[in-house]
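Marked as duplicate of an earlier ticket. Keeping the data here for the record.
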Amino acid sequence: MNFAVVEYSSKSGNIWRSAPNHPNYLEDPEKVIDPTSFGCYVSALAGQHIPLTKFVGADKLSNKIIKRLTGSWPRNYSLEYFKRFDVLMIVYQISDAHEIARLVSRVKQAQPNTFIIGVPTQPYGILKTHLADNPTAKQHFIDYMNRCDVFLTVVKATQSWYESMTSTPVVYLPQIYPTHWATRFFTKHATKEKTIFVAGITDRPKISQGFIVAQALQKEFPDYHINVTQIPGVIMNLDPLRQARYSIAPFQPWLQHLPWLAKQTLVVNTDYTLTRGRVQVDCAAVGTPSLGANSDGQTDLFPELASTPDVSIDKLIELGTRLLTDHAYYEKTVAGAREKLKKYDYEKSAARLQMLVKSYKQ
């Protein structure tokens, strides 16, 4: 099928085309395309990544003035380029959501045979709060969903919430991930460093629990060091680690982060915002178990280590202790996650998406 992902904007401002010898994860993540997001769909399905801003005349002064005065781009931009695709994944994002909703409406009117897949870019926790606080934005989102042929969620636990707002079929499919590349960084337990990596953005609820768990584990196993990473533009509250020995690692692009993550013995992440779970997917690839969280990656890949906001700190410490002392349990957990990760890879994911389109087109 002729496939493209459409987002409001892109890092390069230009169309990115998939090439067999140059997949998305080898591109510059700052200037071209992300290594583990919608670029994965483009690479897996040999498609294109299209920024809407390339077609709305964003380079014209008159259009910029109209945008500034009205909040919208002129509506008469050409849709001719989109006619070459029979399947479009049009991504909803909070900023300029009305432009995306309008695009879906125009494409359905002009190209009724084009199959449109809707999908959100913001995680459930952020999107739900935004829609609850902004009735107009919620209506835009509902209009957008209703005009799609199918709506995709990459977090199984959120499927019913999306279904409650639309008559459009809502389908869960795991986020596509370059398993074939990431697993080359797999590191055996025996060669890992004695370190515990505490992941998460500290302004999210319950993230501090992960720091408390890591500190307790370090007290029990004093030869383990704690690592955290600095996130650009985010002020981290590390007070819960004030009695621990820890280091702050600089932010790393994905290709540099994987070998670093592979050296960690354990990851603790108590993020309960129902994200896709990139942290946990990366952990499964490199052989490092992830403790905590309710992300889709956590509940699918490390179900015995998943938790909810109601799970006690003591229970998490108990699970962490077992991972650090029971090598057979550690190896079984890692092996199970790695096996499940195979279905996230490009070939199998592309086949699932193609079957999905075929089933709803009939």
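See parent ticket for discussion. The longest strand covers residues 87-92.
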